[in-house]
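Lecture notes, unit on binding sites. The following record was shown on slide 14. It pairs a sequence with shikimate-3-phosphate.
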Amino acid sequence: MQDKNLFLIGMMGSWKSTVGCKLAATLEMEFIDTDDAIEEINEMKMADIFKEFGEKRFREMEKAFFIEKAKQPGQIFSTGGGIILRKENRKVLQNCGICFFLEASPQTLADRIHNTTKRPLLTDSDNIEDRLKTIWNDRSQLYINSAHHIIKTDNLEPPQVLNEIIKILEVHIADH
Ligand code: S3P
């Protein structure tokens, strides 16, 4: 897998970072969390980036970072939930590696998300599940269109999601 990138996409709370980090350790590949990288570059927390620059500017930074970084193969990317909003990012997801969509219902996601201070899109919501439903309705097709593989995670724990990905990769290796 060292000659390809692996991308994890999905909504907030879909375990992209938890699973991506373990996957990288298992496969001995470099792990990139796009949110962490953008926070590091700006020396600011996500909430402050949104407050100071706004969502539009964040999306520009996210796109610039992602497109440049994905040129190098052999990395595992845990992407921010909104990565699929930009067409240029979707092209990279489809063409520069293998893209896994970690799917979960808004209800499951709401149950998993305990801290919204790290997630500016949810911070001011009275009802996280309703907010997630709205975001999901806007994005579901974009996630599906960007992914090579969809893993339904509602009834899984992170180690099982990891196993699903590894099983799929084994088939890829056998086929190529
Ligand atoms: C966002 C998801 C966040 C982060 C930002 C915007 C989104 O990442 O990029 O708050 O638009 O869904 P996670 O999916 O890792 O929480």
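Take-home: Residues 12, 16, 35, 46, 80-82, 119-121 surround shikimate-3-phosphate (CB under 6 Å).
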